[in-house]
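Intended use. Records such as the GAK system CofD-like protein entry shown here are meant for training and evaluating sequence-to-structure methods. They are not intended to support clinical decisions.
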Amino acid sequence: MTSSLRIWRRMVMPDPIRVHRYQSLPEQGPKVLFFSGGSALNKISRVFKEYTHHSVHLVTPFDSGGSSARLRAAFDIPAVGDLRSRLMALADETVMGQPEVYALFTHRLAVDAEPAVLQAQLQQLVMGEHPLIETIPNPMKSLIQTQLGVTQARIHEDFDLRGASIGNLIMAGGYLNNQQQLDPIVFLFSRLVKALGEVKTTLDASLHLGVELENGDIVLGQHRITGKETDILPSPIKRMWLNKGLRNRMPTNCTIADDRKDAIETADLICYPPGSFYSSLLANLMPEGVGASISANPNPKVYLPNLGVDPEQQGLSMMERVVRLMSTISGDKETAGPYSVLDYLLLDDAYDYGELDDALLARLNVTVIKTPLITEKPHKYDEHLVARALLSFV
């Protein structure tokens, strides 16, 4: 019989001894789990692999804008862009051929080229004759060609390739070539690029986001929520749900797979990182089983808030974000575990995040940790300082 215990220790922030230990032996580093969506965490992830090769990144598959929207509409697949970009951020940059793979996966076709030109470029890639793929060594080259060939064979002749991400086209082909499942192709490419960490979608399901605004409006689709591809929402978000499709309000949900539950429950540290507050962070916490798995984990949970202006956060103070984060996790329909869903609020020691309510934080059992996290203006988190701060918790 085994039991879980919470062990308290004196914490130094940052802790140079722990940081040095992890940096010296990253292959034995802690299992830090991030609930993240878009590109906001990619720079931190790229630095984080210097300290541990065991970070876990659960990313949202609900993106519905840009070239991802065209692929989703054509094949009814989960969004693959965030998976692709996070895999590249975690790739072992010492592996032969890696710069060429990175260049291919991050390349986008021209937005102003004629359709025939783009079709010809895709054909070159499939044949292995394009400059971007010629220098990639086998077996990686032939694997990429196979997945691109599947995508090429399945897209309609009128499919708009302008601005398409080559990496997304490769991932889409892998999905179509593996019984409409993302996990096998993500695992395969993780091995090929020697990813120094683990990347998965929270759900391997093709769903979208829906929100109700304070003014009563209903908005469907991640791309209409972020305020980046469309106008900023006319009213603050009141609540959010997972939705079937983009045409009608059809709330739904799915239970996360057992391997996701295990990853959450056994993480040495859980981090709620910067990123679009609703479409990247809270969206990741909504699938059934996520909240219960978080509260079944006795280890520290840390919230690192956004800097600057996030259009999705309009109307939300720092304290309201903390409360909404915790209530989203605690709203899981499954039986809650015995442990907290948030322990620490990690803040830069000089940045103004807004007023903090010490009494409310005390009632929520959330401790504020302030330490230098920013080194430049305009204000951006320093990747090394963030990594060292997070690793000081474990």
